[in-house]
Amino acid sequence: MRVVMFGYQTWGHRTLQALIDSEHDVVLVVTHPKSEHAYEKIWSDSVADLAEANGIPVLIRNRPDDEELFQRLEDAAPDIIVANNWRTWIPPRLFDLPRHGTLNVHDSLLPKYAGFSPLIWALINGESEVGVTAHMMNDELDAGDIVRQESVPVGPKDTATDLFHKTVDLIAPVTIGALDLIASGKKDFTPQDRTQASFFHKRSLEDSRIDWTWPAADLERLVRAQSEPYPSAYAFHKGKRLEVLAAVVSEGKYGGTPGRIFYREGEGVVIVAGADARTGRNHGLALTRVRTEDGRELAASEYFTAMGGYLTSRP
């Protein structure tokens, strides 16, 4: 089939490479300009560079809503559009233009985790598996019928980076498998159960701020979700920002006020956590490694020279 590809960052790059390696013919690529956004500088393999290296025409757009782009698409006469990690709305006159419509590839197990940063949100929320879904695009974001979907388990120590590497390897088989089904003439795919749908916003630095009223298990997953190369989870100690690079749920249960720097346990320093910490029934979060505002990385046991005081969510 003749394919136009809309995509960005490493997700789009992997999709384009899979298309180039397949029997399908990529006739045009549309991608976003480079971004200085903290999250968009991560996994930033260039779709434009890959297309140009393979002699494929490239258009750079923030939004696909201009007449020149529409005309270029009409001239390309695609059988299908394939999109992955396209960050702005694609209007119906574009996604309905090819005879087979538009296939969107999304890194979650739809209908859950539509929208942005699905792997990070899924890890924070304690999901047991993540994956990649190829679905037909309609006028509701990430809501069209599912053509193909594959999953991988989430391990107890997985970081968001681990989940990225697990799921990015699913892009090629999911995308090409879905295209093969469409090319074979199959038209009836699996409708999404919209009662199970959830939609998440882009993450920002504010979303990495630690709230000590969260249960320790949730905070431990937040730290793993915000591991390198993502901006680290952070709190404030004596008015200065302190990044939490590694932590575990404490073995013991600790009572008091959320955020209290309380007790040395093993190689960690336990911080009281949970909205009902006053009951003494909660595990704490044992910090094991931190980074100071001036960039020094230290074992938490070395940084906290004495117990007492608080880690706060704001200076």
From TrEMBL:
Residues 1-169 form the Formyl transferase N-terminal domain. Keywords: Transferase. GO terms for molecular function: methionyl-tRNA formyltransferase activity. Residues 206-305 form the Formyl transferase C-terminal domain. GO terms for cellular component: cytosol. InterPro entries: Formyl_trans_C, Formyl_transf_N, Formyl_transf_N_sf, Formyl_transferase-like_C_sf. Gene3D superfamilies: 3.40.50.12230. It comes from the Bacteria. Pfam families: Formyl_trans_C (PF02911), Formyl_trans_N (PF00551). Coiled coil: none annotated. PANTHER family: METHIONYL-TRNA FORMYLTRANSFERASE, METHIONYL-TRNA FORMYLTRANSFERASE, MITOCHONDRIAL. This is Methionyl-tRNA formyltransferase. It comes from Streptomyces typhae. The lineage of its organism: Bacteria, Bacillati, Actinomycetota, Actinomycetes, Kitasatosporales.
